[in-house]
Write a structure and sequence with these properties.
The protein has 114 residues and is mainly β. The protein is built from no helices and 9 strands. The strands form 3 sheets. It has a 4-stranded antiparallel β-sheet, with no helix packed on it. Strands 4-7-9 form a 3-stranded antiparallel β-sheet, with no helix packed on it. Strands 3-8 form a two-stranded antiparallel ribbon.
Length: 114
Amino acid sequence: MIKRPRRERKPQHRGRPQPNAKPRGANATLTFTVNGNNVEVATDLVVAVNKVPNYIVNPGALAPTGISAKTPTGFTLTYASIPATAPVIVVGELDPAVRTISGGYANPGTFPLA
């Protein structure tokens, strides 16, 4: 009986990086300053702002109405009004509107407005 020669197969993933093994970039730390109905945001890293981020001011659940980029490490959010009693700003996790140049996001959390 004549046997067919077996073809040796290598695993397809050998030598290729796994697509889900990409390291995520560094996240930016944000600091907030209130100036009238505007909130000035300063970051510790260079960021790209693509659209108005969903940074909610509480109490009142106020969303920003506009944005203007001042420097590569800062931008200004415009709100209709900002409450006078103990306002805080809520930054959601993985908001695609603000990204660092290395691919990271803004650090999420609840921050007091000064």
